[in-house]
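so my prof wants the structure for this chain in the tokens format not the other one, which i didnt know existed until like an hour ago. anyway here's the sequence
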Amino acid sequence: MPSRRQVQVRLAPVRPAEVAAHQGDVDLAALARVGPMDTHAHVFQDVPAYYEFMKQINLRIVDICVLSRKDEPPYDTQAAQFHMAMTVHKHSDGRAGVCTTFDP
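here's what i got, hopefully its the right format
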């Protein structure tokens, strides 16, 4: 059985403002990696011609899943709508990001 080693950790005092500034830099860098989006949309159909159109005009979207009316076909459940949004994301070669208003 491997032996355990003692590890000594020294923490330098950090001021809350420094933590907030660093977190702000981290958040800004993460946002910059997202890249520009042209518009938000609600796309829940797997249509190859649409993906080709997106590519031709260099369109990038955020596909937003929102459940509103229960009688809106065809994806009136969270699971079905999220599944189709992820299909659109995958088949669009990343040109369609996905955002939800619920925890999938």
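also thought this was worth mentioning. Residues 58 and 72 are 30 Å apart (CA to CA).
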